[in-house]
Amino acid sequence: MNGQMHLALWGFAAVILLLGLAGIVCFFGGVKRIFHGRFAGGGGRMLFGLLLLSIFAFFAAVAMDLRTYLRLTYEQPVATLSFAALGPQAFHVTLTDANGVIRSAELRGDDWQLDARVIKWKGLATVLGLDPLYRLERLEGRYRNAAQESHDYHSVLELSAGAGGLDLWSLAQDHASWLPWVDAGYGSATYLPMADGAQYTVSMSPTGLLARPANAAAQAVLAHW
Asked: I need a surface site. Which of 98, 156, 183, 193 has the fewest CB within 10 A?
């Protein structure tokens, strides 16, 4: 989790690794027994090994997805945004996230909107001390005029493309009964006006995203928003 993985998640990773190793040992132990003519015992070991390897593969894919999230323990800065006008309702935006990764794009519209998804935990997962996790999803331009919003070009900067692994957030939303220890019913968004030279800071807390002006240009456009 970009160097911020909770100790409990390291324990979770260790258990996953042990499952994989146990699955390999059982599977090849079964192959060895079959090779020596003990088909019943060998077949049972192979099936049990395959079961363990399937469990290992599932949780390994989940772990790959979770490493793209960051811990959320209190209100903390998650992004800064800077805007430069390119023309009417067109702006160049530079977004710097909490890891210092810089992304830029052209946004069309009057306002910007930043979306994030949050994973919270329930039941045993909270007993293990797992913190809520968040991931920035997308930054897009918005038109204030409803007709423009319906028909004009929408510009979007994807922030989680190529995350990899099994999408635990979507899986928990679609099959909540399968994952009773995952609370993925929570997303968050914040939006403010775009303006030439405006800068904003965005923070995330357990209650959601919060954007604030970071310079005089942002404060000036907000005064007339």
From this structure: 156
